[in-house]
Input
Amino acid sequence: MGALSGLKVLDLSRVLAGPWAGQLLGDLGADVVKIERPDSGDDTRAWGPPYLKDSDGRDTSEAAYFLSANRNKRSLAIDFTQPAGQAELKRLVAKADVLIENFKVGGLAAYGLDYATLQALNPRLIYCSVTGFGQTGPYANRAGYDFMIQGLGGLMSVTGRADNEPGAGPLKVGVALTDVMTGLYASNAILAALAERERSGLGQHIDLALLDVQVACLANQALNYLTTGQAPQRLGNAHPNIVPYQDFPTADGNLILTVGNDSQFRAFAAAVGQPQWGNDPRFASNAARVAHRSELIPLIRQQTVFRTTAEWVSLLGQAGVPCGPINDLQQVFADPQVRARELVLRMPHPLSGELALVANPIRLSRTPVSYQHAPPLLNADAASVRRDWLGEAGEVEE
Output
């Protein structure tokens, strides 16, 4: 019995932001039904390679991308461009608590599946619309994808090497972070609407835009601009407000050093054999270190190159200085802390026998996350959904 056990969710969304929200609700115990196109399903089913391998090592039809965001859902294919599909979907809506969709603004109105129509059918329905730019404004009718929003929303302007460094230029983040953050905001908004429904008895419409989320998640960089009127510049792996807080070369690679306060800096200076740095007026406070960044960083680099990354991690760890390596994903999943936290889970899958997934990071003491369904094959759960939601008899797929 998960925290959201008994909650019924219709997930009409595709790609990542909406499905990420639906997966989170499913992990927490909700009954999430993924509504897909009968012919091809979610776009990401074909976003490969790589694809899931079967027991003989051959590619299946399931792309790894799809598998990342569709756990704990059941798949039901409905062609709601047709009257029969619209009628069936409305029957499901009458039973639903939540609907998630990411169609273009007004796109579902042509099929009678817009919020106003469905709210009249089910006043308790929480209807979450995820779009690139929101339901209002001059860009409302534009399509929006994560990469474009990272650029338009300012994230790429503060990501990448500084203009005076080799390889300078804006870069996107290595995962579709805006989509992921939008999925997290969507699930938070849904939970807030559910809590309010306990008082009012009514659902509501959630208008969530990738651009809004991206701007909101600029965090300290946004306030750096709003406070000063000066647009932050790219600093590579350095931090605009904290020094030293970046990567440094070692004898065999790189070390990330994240000194968050002055006492940590004094401990660091002592550990590298330069205790005088802790009392140097140029470096004694964070504000001074930010002002004298160009003097301090070369001095640190001259020290870090004489030990390996592992040696620095051990030495600085004993001194209480936060630091770490730059791992690739093979190293991440081999890390003893990642293993201890059981961040890889394995579930049975009809095509591969077993499927490796990344576990949900939420740890609840009484109602823990559970894993009931591997990412579903297209329309694999049609009979069981119709039985459980609509009371229709029939053979249930295994």
